[in-house]
Each structure stands twice: as structure tokens, then as C-alpha cells.
Amino acid sequence: MRPSALVDHGARFRDVCAELPAAVCVVTGTGPGGLYGATVSSMCSVSLDPLIVLVCLDNRSSTLAAVLQSGSFAVNALHAGQNDVASRFASRVDGATKYQGVPHRIRDGVPVLDDALGWFVCDVAQPHLSGDHTILTGLVRAVGGSDGEPLLWHRRTFRGLTPETPSSGQVQR
Predict the structure, then answer these.
(1) What per-residue string of b and e applies to 25-61 under the rule 16 or more CB within 10 Å gives b?
(2) Which of 15, 50, 73, 91 lies in the 20 to 30 Å Cα band around 35?
(3) Residue 81: in which H helix or E strand, if any?
(4) What CA–CA distance (Å, rounded) separates 170 from 173?
(5) Radius of gyration (Cα) for the chain, nearest Å?
């Protein structure tokens, strides 16, 4: 296949994926440099027996390296309106800066965001290298949450489930 056809195919792939709404989560962990975290829109439940979730992290992510080294992580599903938290953890700034002004606590050795809609503390069950990302399955050790509406990523914009949900608009990735 010609390289130009691959570029076009990749752009179309991203456009089609942008039509599929996804819950916005922050994967958090600890490592030799302190606290780490990254925003993801690829999270799902895998199993009820045992409890397993799945997230995908960029292979170049310092958060991925910290999680693999420590063997544990948390997945924090964000509330609608937590666009600023999602954007902060999507940035390339250091971990300490990402956590400034974001209330959190350490639970079972990993940071959990206080204002998250829901959270899962996990042990790494199995990493799977898949292209430019690693699929992490996590054996859930603890879970918690509150009522509310999730923050979604749809058409390259943060959204809620209802039209009334505030959104700070489009974010470029």
C-alpha cells in the first residue's frame, strides 16, 4: 500500500473513532519520581469473577513505566465538568504539577482522585503490547464512587450525557 493511502486511512480511522463516545478517566500511580497520572478514554470492565478492568496507555507514557514498575494503579472516572482535570492529566507536565490543586488521597499505595465519579484500585494483571499502546488489565482490589454524570470524550470534545452539561469545548490531542 502507498504511504499516502496509509495516512488517509489513519485520518479516517481517527474520524470514525471520534464518533464513538468514551468515558474519560485518569490512570494514576506511583513510581521512583513520585506521583504519575495520564488521561485515557479507553477503559472498560472485563470480568466480574475475578473483578478485572482494562485501560490503554501510550508506550511512551511515564505513567505506564511507573505502573509497570510498581505493579499497581488506579482508574479514576471523571464527573461531567471535570474537563480541567482531564486536560491537566493529558498534558506532558511532570506528575507533581498535574496533582497541584487536585484533591487526592493515597489508597492501597496509589493516588485516588477525591472528586472522581468512580475509582478502581488495581494490581497489574497482564500488560499486552499492542501497536503504540499497551493494554493493561487490572485485578481490582478496591472500588468506590458517587452518583453523577460522567465526563465523555466525543467528536474531540468533552461532553456530558445531557445537553445541559457544561463543557469547556474542544481540546486538541
Answers:
(1) bbbbbbbeeebbbbbbbebeeeeeeebbbbbbbeeeb
(2) 50
(3) none
(4) 10
(5) 16
Instruction: Summarize pLDDT for 37-77 with one digit per residue, the tens.
Output: 999 999 999 999 999 999 999 999 999 999 999 999 999 99
Nearest-angstrom CA–CA distance, 12 and 134: 22
pTM for the model: 0.87
Q: What angle do CA 157, 160, 163 make, to 5 degrees?
A: 95
**Can you give 6-42 as a three-state secondary structure string?**
HHHHHHHHHHHHHCCCEECEEEEEEECCEEEEEEECC
Query: Which amino acid does the sequence have at 52?
Result: I
